[in-house]
Design goal:
A hairpin with a 5-residue loop joins strand 6 (69-79) and strand 7 (85-96). The protein has helices spanning 2-21, 99-106, 110-130, 142-158, 176-246, 250-265, and strands spanning 23-26, 30-36, 39-44, 48-51, 59-65, 69-79, 85-96, 162-174. The radius of gyration is 64 Å and the shape is rod-shaped. The chain is α+β, with helices and mostly antiparallel strands. Among the domains are: 2-65, no CATH class; 69-174, Tetrahydropterin Synthase, Chain A (2-Layer Sandwich), CATH 3.30.479; 247-308 and 354-380, no CATH class. It is a single-pass membrane protein.
Length: 380
């Protein structure tokens, strides 16, 4: 009885082994390669339940991935056409598109495929970067670079039954030593540009300052010229008025100028003057205080109204709005208007009857000077 139970148990176990060894399941993430004595007999890419010859001695099944797989390439140093170096991080995604070729040419091992990918991926990235300038990887050319790298890898990987789906560049940075040199170069360029802009600004400032200085000089010169012209016209008018006033009695004018000269020269300034009594300066000192005889021939008095210039339509001097006006009337110190002189009253003689022949007047620091800017007699 015991032996019979053992035989039945062995038969049941053998039947279960044959049953389970002849069944294999393929899910949606896998593919199955069926081999008989090392030769591929079937490839199952659809998920489901499949049967084969029992035991793995005759038929064996290899399960391979049907999902997208990823290969990463980190800290890869590449050189661009300008000689600069980049540190690049990139990855690619692939899948086993042909399990039969994958088994035949890659022995069904992902390590063989990844070794081939590493070699081809590295070469493709170096080629893509080597054809471009320094800033290309940081510009809008980056998507095109990734497509070119994928196209370079694709033909070699198809031979292994692997399809390259996509290539992505994660990071593109300058190498540390290159980054420092690049920073210094960019800094020098910015400083040079700033110096150029500053020089241009100073040039424009100097130009504007020179124009302003020139205009200021021109304005001051024009104003000075107009002022001198106006001052000259005023002086001429003043001299004309004084000449018209004093020219009516030259003898009185000579006497008046002599008195003014005495007042100026003989002031108490501490200066000693030694002169001969016969000098012209003491002409009126030896006359016993008497004035010279009155002149009997007087010039015709000058009518101030006849000296008013005729009005013209010409503009004022240099556009300053200054026009010639009627000369002011001449008045004496007491406020009375100056009138033509018709005679001279002779004062009473001095009681002592004589004047000193020589006097030592008070020192004077200044020479006799006329009161007004008019021609002085020769005797003064």
């Amino acid at each position: 009885m015991t032996n019979r139970l053992l035989v039945i148990g062995a038969i049941v176990l053998a039947a279960l082994y044959v049953l389970f060894s002849s069944i294999y399941i393929v899910n949606e993430r896998e593919q199955a390669i069926v081999m008989r004595f090392g030769q591929i007999t079937a490839v199952n890419t659809q998920p489901g339940l499949y049967f084969k010859v029992p035991t793995d001695i005759v038929d064996s099944v290899q399960i391979v991935e049907d999902r997208l797989l990823r290969y990463d390439l980190d800290d890869m140093t590449v050189q661009v056409s300008g000689g600069a170096f980049y540190e690049v991080d990139a990855f690619l995604s692939y899948r086993i598109a042909d399990p039969r070729l994958f088994r035949e040419r890659a022995l069904g091992q992902l390590s063989v495929v990844e070794d081939r990918i590493a070699t081809r991926f590295d070469a493709a990235l170096r080629q893509v970067y080597g054809l471009r300038e320094f800033n290309a990887a940081l510009s809008e050319q980056r998507p095109q670079m990734m497509r070119e790298a994928r196209d370079l890898i694709y033909p070699d990987m198809v031979e292994l039954g692997v399809e390259i789906v996509d290539v992505r560049i994660l990071r593109t940075d300058l190498a540390r030593e290159v980054e420092e040199r690049t920073f210094e170069r960019m800094r020098a360029e910015r400083l040079a540009e700033a110096a150029l802009l500053r020089a241009r600004g100073q040039e424009q400032a100097q130009s504007l300052r020179a124009i302003a200085d020139r205009q200021a000089v021109e304005i001051v010169a024009a104003a000075t010229r107009d002022a001198e012209i106006i001052r000259g016209d005023g002086d001429a008018e003043r001299i004309r008025l004084y000449a018209a006033a004093y020219g009516q009695d030259p003898e009185f004018f000579e006497f008046y100028r002599s008195m003014e000269a005495y007042r100026t020269a003989l002031a108490g300034t501490g200066t000693t003057m030694v002169l001969t009594p016969e000098s012209e300066f003491f002409r009126y000192f030896g006359s016993n205080g008497e004035l010279p005889a009155a002149s009997t021939s007087f010039p015709t008095p000058i009518d101030p109204s006849s000296q008013v210039p005729a009005a013209t339509d010409e503009p004022a001097l240099d556009g300053l709005g200054i026009e010639e006006t009627t000369p002011p009337s001449v008045t004496l110190d007491d406020g009375t208007p100056l009138e033509p002189t018709q005679g001279t009253q002779i004062p009473a003689p001095v009681e002592d009857g004589s004047a000193p022949a020589e006097e030592t007047p008070a020192p004077a620091e200044e020479a006799p000077a006329p009161v007004e800017e008019t021609p002085a007699p020769a005797g003064q």
